[in-house]
Amino acid sequence: RILLLVFVILLAVFITANILLGVYAPRIVESQVEQNLKLKCSIGKISLNAPLTITLEKLEIGNLASIKKISFSPNLIALLFGKIVIHGLNVVEPVINFELSADGKLSFPAFSQNSKPPKVFLTSLRVQDGKIIFTDRKVTPDGFQVILGKLNIKIAKVSLPVTSLATNFSVSAELLNARLLPLGNFAFDGWLDYLARDLDATLEVKNLDVAYFAPYYGNFISNKKISSATLHLDSTFKARN
């Protein structure tokens, strides 16, 4: 009976928390984002899933970003000590837009001077099928555009040994031009131990259309425009102490 009573109480708390999150949390988060970034924000839904995973769906932040879904598990014990520790941050299909103006200013917003962004500690991060659209109006008035598509990121701390601070990472994406035609692919993966200053990683670039980036070369290579060039690259990075 005691176990049943505890279960009923926990279930009631969970349902109540889910309702409160769904009703009040979206507007609170939207107002905080708008106040700090000075951009219009909208959230389709915020929900709580067992055992303690918070999910945000259909997040829109001005023209800066749109994200299909974000899910994470906050560490309640860390919150008691005034720290924000997040486990398993999972970002699904984010689309990020930023632009470099003719005078060299990035459109990426800064936090309001009246508020400082809280310090957040992540134990793991995963980005699935992301996209970053970069438009450079400094190099060409019409806007030179490069797109990172199919962006996938995995970052996770090594669980064993317990004393290790090594972090595994994996990043891959395809490069596209403004017409969404492929420019090449890259993959960067390995591990890093920040305190020990140890690193072991590999970078692989395939079929990179070097000629597409000719507006950045100036007279570095020649006064003539490169008609065709493809880059294949395999690099190894190692660091000890």
Pick out its properties:
eleven-stranded mixed β-sheet; 17% helix; 241 residues; alpha+beta; 11 strands
What layout of secondary structure does this protein have?
Blueprint: H1 2-37, E1 41-49, E2 53-61, E3 65-74, H2 76-80, E4 84-100, E5 120-122, E6 124-136, E7 144-157, E8 166-176, E9 182-193, E10 198-209, E11 230-239
Parallel strand pairs: 4-5, 4-6
Antiparallel strand pairs: 1-2, 2-3, 3-4, 6-7, 7-8, 8-9, 9-10, 10-11
Could you explain how this protein is built, in words?
Strands 1, 2, 3, 4, 5, 6, 7, 8, 9, 10 and 11 form an eleven-stranded mixed sheet that branches. A hairpin with a 7-residue loop joins strand 6 and strand 7. The chain is 17% helix and 50% strand. It is globular and about 80 Å long. The N and C termini lie far apart (58 Å).
* H/E series: HEEEHEEEEEEEE
How would the global form be characterised? globular
Query: What value does the Rg take, in angstroms?
Result: 22 Å
The overall average pLDDT, rounded, is 83
Biggest β-sheet description: 11 strands, mixed
**Helicity range:** 10-25%
Strand content: over 45%
Q: Give the uncertain stretches in residue-range form.
A: none
Helix and strand composition category: alpha+beta
Number of strands: 11
What's this, in brief?
With 241 residues, the chain is α+β, with helices and mostly antiparallel strands.
